[in-house]
Amino acid sequence: MEMERRGYLQAGGFIPEVVLEHPEMVQGLHKEFIHAGTDVVEAFTYYGHREKLRAIGREDDLEKLNRTALKIAREVANETGTLMAGGLCCTTVYEEDNLETHDKVRSMFKEQVEWAAEEGADYIIAETIHSYGEAKLALEAIQQHGKGIPAVVTLSCLIPDETMDGVPIAEACRKLEEAGAAVVGLNCGRGPSTMIPALREIRKACNGPIAALPVTYRTKEDCRTWHSLKDPDTGKDVYPRNLACVMSSRDDIRECAEEAKAIGVNYIGLCCGNSPFYFRELAEVYAPTCLIPDETADGVPIAEACRKLEEAGADVVGLYCGRGPSTMLPALREIRKACNVCN
């Protein structure tokens, strides 16, 4: 969605052609989110699977697009000391009662998993999966072709709290966890206020880490998903082109992060509508468990760097930007111990 807002994707289609046409933009956006606090770089392959590229006449670019996205993500992760994840998503062809579609889905997942493993992914995310059956196929593909790479599987919960093939969401997550997923949970579909209740049930059902990545839109009980939201002035549907009027506030996102943390959500992020300023809210709430070291980009501990600059003659040393109040204060305490001048 952020790429669409910047004019590099088409609303509705969201096919990541930008990976091939403007790779520098993809690299830059990865770095913006790292600066905002993320510790994972996910390759920009959402809707970059065979079916979507075939639909726009670019199936021949399938492997090139995926490998390019993975290489960009790996390069940024290496540069910044973060993790790199490969990605799978709903195929749009899965049908519960049509076994031919199951074979097609397996093949689509297999090739993307193999490319992710070959390009050095630390783990693979299967996201925005609407059916338990398709989620199970994604998990199996990662287990069979991912060379031991861990799997994160997140379902998209729509109006009822169940998958499209009728499995209660909490039960589906429990089954995926039992089948070997390292992390299970929810992404997309719902905004902060309507995802939280389902997360509580998932937390009760699962023993391991659970994930929450809501969309950044003001869903509510009578409009649980972002697809069903209306313009508050006109009453017209806003998905997918006119979502600006129902965007979450920063406080909405921070409150969601605080609730998720209290519930016991271990893996936090945002889905459609995300932007670095939103992600900063998550990072500040989850900062004690985020991989954000108290050191400079060239590996010098912050307090030591400030002390050295003071000894070299700086009248004032300290910190600027990068962190919010709650995450800057601990580092400032260490700087105060190390330095004699103003900071």
UniProtKB/TrEMBL annotation:
Binding note for cofactor = Binds 1 zinc ion per subunit.
Q: Which InterPro entries match?
A: BHMT-like, HCY_dom, HCY_dom_sf
Q: Which GO terms describe its molecular function?
A: methyltransferase activity; zinc ion binding
Which GO biological process categories is it annotated with? methionine biosynthetic process; methylation
Keyword Heme among UniProt keywords:
no
One Pfam match: S-methyl_trans
Q: Which residues form the Hcy-binding domain?
A: 1-286
Query: Keyword set for this entry?
Result: Metal-binding, Methyltransferase, Transferase, Zinc
Report residues binding Zn(2+).
188, 271-272
Descriptive protein name: Betaine--homocysteine S-methyltransferase 1
Species this protein is from: Mizuhopecten yessoensis
